[in-house]
Every structure is written in structure tokens, then in C-alpha cells.
Amino acid sequence: MLNGDQWSQLLQGFIEEASDLIKQAEEYLLQLDQTPDDEDAINGLFRAMHTLKGSAGLFSLTPLVSFTHHLESLLMAVRDGQRTLTPPLVSLMLRCLDEVASMVSLIDVDSGELPVDETHQNELLAALAEHSGQAVEQIPATQVAAPSACPNRGRLEKCANCDADGAWHISLRFHPDLFRNGFDPAAFIRYLSRLGDILHLDVIDASLPSFSEMDPESCYLGLEIDLCTDASKAEIEEVFEFIHDFSTLRILPPNSALEDYLQLIHELPETDQRVGRILVASGLLTEHELEQGLALQAQASEQKPQLGSVLVEEGMVAPQAVNAALAKQQSAREKRSLESSQIRVAAHKLDELINLVGELVISAAGAQLRAQSHGDAGCVETTQTVNQHVELIREAALKLRMIEIGDTFNRFHRVVRDVSQQLGKNIRLEIRGADTELDKSVIDKLADPLTHLVRNAIDHGIESAEDRLAAGKPAEGQLQLNAYHESGQIVIEVADDGRGLNTERIRQKAIDRGLIDPQANLAEHDIHALIFAAGFSTADNVSDLSGRGVGMDVVRSVIDGLRGSIEIDSVLGAGCTFRIRLPLTLAIIDGFLISLGEEYFVVPLDMVTECLEMDAGQLGDSAYGYLNLRGKPLPCISLAAHFDLPASRSKRRNIVVVNQGRQQAGLVVDNLHGELQTVIKPLGLLFQHLQGIGGSTILGNGQVALILDIPSLFRHLQNHVEASAGDLRQPRMDISGF
Amino acid sequence: MNLPQIVKAEMPLASIQHLSFRVRQARYALPIELVREIIEYGQITTVPMMPAFIHGVINLRGNVVPVLDLAARFGFELTEPGKRTCIVIIELELDDQQQRIGLVVDAVDAVLDIDSSEVEPAPPFGAGIRTDFIAGMARDERGFTIILDVRRVLSLDDIRQLSLAQQAS
Fold it and tell me: Where would I find the CheW-like domain in this sequence (chain A) (predicted)?
């Protein structure tokens, strides 16, 4: 027996599986929304629902089973062509999927119970039923087996009409539990008839008990079917995939050897004569052949019991069926091997590995330091080799956590569909760079801010169709999600071709809210940045989507928390682009080690563009200033002065030029120590409001060095310097005003 | 009649072990369950733009742990490290996260069994430090030991405001 822990672990596994299945189902549905006839998508959707229902049954999650059962039945009707998926039906199905997802999230892992409020479900089911009712009226059931349009009906010869060599013989015996599991055999026969012509169909009721003993919920039937088709054996098997557990299926290809038919007759539970007669009736065997064969078999079984099986091996399947089946199997196997080459690993195990790699990096650096101070050439060389390997291990370990952003992007198809329908707008979502990889922990945290930006773009950015036409734009709005690499960072863009940010209104609003001085002369870029201030919203009417002014500052703080930055590119009337820049990983980075007196600091190497030597007199003692860098002014900051560290005594100082987006600045430091693999150690709660410093790391000698957070340093400098320079600027503006 | 009440009152009064230490001339104590270890005063990396009492961070076997100067937190001058200066590493939950913090003290004294019947409330003034830092005053033959209210001493809100003020200046 399973104990409680194991059980809840299994249940946890089910919840994960279910979430995956729901996600898959949603993708298929959205695909069907575009192309309603996509059979693969319908089958995929059906399979997802079926698996979900089956697994939920294992855990006795009755409400989930019964709800998914309704969805499954509907999909079965869609699959065998009785119903089509109309856009309203897709919307309804999407809502049902949401309900399934919320049910899954309600499962109590410890008790294994699923407390549900059924009113909402019943509403949805009622809507579904209503919908199905309409659909049945609209689409008459036309697909029911049109009995053999094929003139060669019941012949063994090649069927001229349908490219097939004779008929397949399928014998199907149902499990007594078939009905109890909610399957209707007729649906499968209808689906089977899409593959080809059913030439002959016999119901086997031999096991039907007497009326008084019969259980009306049990299935006692079997079917003998002759099918004229050019489909492969695998395709025929697939038809019955879902009742695989509740039936016994035997398929004989056209023109099978007599022995195979005899074998079949022998294997079936009914009497040989009865099955034999069916085969004769369908024209697959002649009376003579049957008699001869049965006699032969009787003989064979007396003399050589294995003869039958040898014959089966030799002539079991006709050659053309073998080829088709092989091709089919090959592709199925390839697909499966692609799937099985993925391993699911618990995230905490990866974290543990990466932590250990981090420790390894630090100790390897320590060993190298020792070796160098010791001066033994051999030892130095060995530690260098070790370090190279450690670096490779580090890179490989970090790659383990990288996942493609595509999954996150694809989720927005649904958001765009829902929100644009709600607002009556016509919007197309375009996704680029879905294969860009990003650290999983970053992607997880990114979902919320992205959703916010997307919703905002649909709600405020993209205009209604009339406004768009009036402005000379296509009626269909366009929203773009884009991801790419740029100088060691990941850039994610949310771009719309809507009306753009209204600079004047933002400015006015900011003045009303007291965020800026009415006389302040801000660049357009700076005004746009004001929308990230807390409590700022310019939407004139608050909708339930956005406009409450509680979003953008949250977006900003999440991005800050990921050591990233966000900028806005907006052109009035032409569209708006939000550009998020993020570091590739949160755990270990390539750093550049510098020192100020006794203190060591690390600058993320991606940000460093060059290093310059500086004369002591160039900047003087002031903390801030600028230099001439190849004809352009380069703002410089003396880190020691900025951080209130003791003034440097060294004569020769250096400038590290750092680059962040469009900004460039020089950091004045004492010494440069070169590249360093930097394991980021969080500084903890006490320092979470510290601007300009993003974390810490441990150097080879055991000393702690602080890691500079360049974006936050830049922002802090801007606010800080502008605040102190504001007093100087103000009078000058007054003069020009007069 | 009174008997059960007395028993009830004494039940939770079982003596609790405290670590006592000295900061400047006064004696202080912390419940020993908070204390993880005591280490020698060593290499501390300064973190700029923080209030003076946040001394910096140390490398505690691969973990970066912040270090506070208790004397400076109480409003005295920064500690000049001497022979007996130590860092007491404590672990407690702040904002729902387990956090390890080092406290610089002038000397560690002993482990005391403090019976709660011997704990007096803090006097409104005169103890030398902010009254809200004091959880109680333990009396013994040598005088009083101040039991610290660690959560107040390490109040994140307090520290946040101080560090924001520091950065703005």
C-alpha cells in the first residue's frame, strides 16, 4: 500500500501532468480557432482530455472526471464529424478549460480531495448542452457509413475504386466495462468509416446472456468488420486507440494467407463455425476454403502444434501493409524518441547543482591564487587547466536552467484573443524569437509584467477599428512579442501599432499628481518614463482590464528585481514599444574585478566596453564630471567619492567605461584586476533598498566583494544629480523665460 | 483556591538560557536559541551608503552574512576592534525569511539561566539605550543584564528608513 506521502507525491505528479495537458489542450483549441478542420489538433485535443479524464479517475477526483467526460463526449462528436467547432464553441471550450484548470488547482494534495462549487460547472455544461443542441440541428449527421459505394463489395480481388487491395478484416470484442467508461462503440465505427468503406459489418452477440441475467450497463457485443481502405494497419489501430483498454482488437490485412484467417477463427471466443460463416458471408473466404482449412488445422494441431504460429510469422501481414506500417511506425518512433530525450528534473535539484558549481568556482579561484603565490610553474599550469574545466562546467550547468521563452509567449495568444474580443477589437499577435533561451527563474517572474504590458497595449495602445481606419491604418491591429540577444543581455519587446503614448497628457497628469514641477523642462523620453511612477494612470475611463494605475510601477519593480531595465519607444499615432533588458542568468556571471583602496568591486563584464588610463589631475577631487572620449563627452563618476569611501591615494587611476542601453558612463577606480567568474550571493533583506549594488560574491582569497548594479546605479545617479543640479538649473530657466 | 493559579503562572517560567555579552560597559543578553555561533572579529567588507551601524558583510563559510555593530546601533561610537571583540551570529525570521545576521560585541561573557521571575520590565529611561530595544532586565547578584528585543534592534523598517535617508544625502 502507498503511504500518505507517496500518495500526495503521486497526486502532485498528476497536478503537474494535468497542467501540461490543459496547456496543450488550450494550444490545440486556439489552433482550431484558426483552422477548424485540423484533424491532428482535434485528435490532440481529444487525447489530452481523455488522458486527463483517465488520470483523474485514478485519483477518484469524481467532479473532474464527470466534467471532462462532457468535454470528451463533445470532442468525440467533433472528431467523427457530427459537429463542427464554431468560434463561439471554441470560446465556450476555452472557458471550460479554465474551469478544469481551476478545479485542478483546487485539489488538496494532502487529503486528495477536490472541493468544488458545482454551480459554475453546471452553468458551463448547460451552455455546452444548449450549444450542442443547436449544432445538431444545423449539421445533419451525414457521415454515417454510406454502405459501400465500392462495386467490388465482398470480393477478394483488388478493389478498383479505392486503390486498396481487397478488404481489411477487423474483429473487435468489447470489454464489459465499455459503457461504464462512457464510450459509445457507434462513434468509433462512424470514425472508422472516414478511413474507407465498411463493406461488411456483423454484430456478434454470442456472449449475450439470457434476458434475466443481462446487466444493461455491461457490453456483451463484438463486431466483425470488413473495411476497404488504403490506410495502414497503424491508422486503423489508431481509430480504436481510446478504447484500447476496453476492447480486444484483431486486424488482418487484405489478402492475408488462409492460415491467418484460420488462426483468427481459432482465437476468437465464438465457435469456429460461426466466425467462419461470417468470413464466408463477407466473401473473404469461400465455403470450400473454410472447410479445407478447418480440417487442415485440426490435422496440424494434432501433428505439429507450432505449425500455426510458424505460418503466421511467415504470412501474417501482406507486403504493402508492412511497408506502410513500417513508415508509420518509424515516424511515431522518431517522435517518441524526441520526447523521451527530455528529462524532467525537480528545479531544486538544479538549484543545488548550480550552488555547488558556484562553490567550485570559488574554491578553484582560491586554488589558483595559492598556486600563483607559491610560484611552482607546474602547479600553476594544473590549476589553470582545472579552472578552464570549471568554467566549462559552469556554463553547462547554467544552460540546464535555460528554457525557451516561446512557451511564455504562446500563452498570450489566449490573452490577446480574450481581451480583444471583450473590447471588440481585431488584433493579431505576432511572435518572434520564440526560441530565445532564458533562465527559468527569470521567465517565471516575467509572466506577470508581460501580461500587464500586453493587456495595456490592447486596451490603451491599439485603437478601435473605426479609429484605425480613420487614421489610415489597417483595421486589424498588430501586437508583437519579440525576444533576442543583445550584448550579453536578453531583450524582450512588447510592440503595438496603436496610438502611442500621449506625451502632453502624461505631462499634465504628472503635474496634477505633483510628480513633476509644472515648469520642469523634461525631454519626451523622461516624460514617458513617468508612467512607471506609483499610482500613475492616464486612461480617462477605468476599465476592468487596466487603467487603475497600479500596474506599471509593479512592472518596473519586478524588472528591477531581476536586475533588468525597461525603456519606452513611443511615436504618437504610430505605436509604442516597451523594451525590457534582462541579464541572461541570475546565478553566475562573468565579472570584471576592480578595486578602490582596500575594497573590491565587480562590474558585470557584459556592461564593460573599454578601460582607459586616467591622469590624476583630469577629474580633480569632484565626484562627478565628464571627459572627452574620442570627441564625445563621457560622464564620469568617482566611485570612491560616490560611495563615501576614503579618497584614493594612488596616483594612477583607471576609468572603466560601462554601457547600459543608450547610456554610457565612466567609472573612476583605482586598480583593474581583470575578468572573474562571479558567483552571485544575495545580500539579503537588510540591503534590499541599496541602489547601485546588486549583490556580492566571494573572491578566491575568501574576501567578500560587492557587485555593482549598473542600471540602478545610473538611475540613482540621474535622480541624485538632477536633484542637486535642479537648484542651479531653475534660475537659468527663469531668465530665459523673461 | 490560589494554588492552581500559582502553578499555572510558574509553568512557563522555567528558566531560559541566554547568552550574555558586553557592549561598552553594559551587560546584555539574548535567548540562546537565536544564537548559531560566535566567531572571531575578522575581515569585514564595507557596504557603502548604509547607516554606520551596518558594518558590512562577512564570508561565513561561503555565505555572505551582514554584520551589525551593536554599539553603533545603540547610538555609541563605532566599535574599535580589540582582543576580545567577537561577532555573534544569530538566525531569525525577518519578513518571512530566515536570515542570518552577525552582531559585533565587545566581549562574550557566559551562558546564563535566566528565570523569568527575575526579569523586570525596562525602566522608562536611564538604561542607556532606546527603551523599545529592551525586552526586560534580568536581575542577578552582579546587577542587571539587559535582555534585548532582537526584533526591535533589527527592525527592517527602521533600517530601511535609515538607509534611504543615508542614500538621499
Answer: 588-719
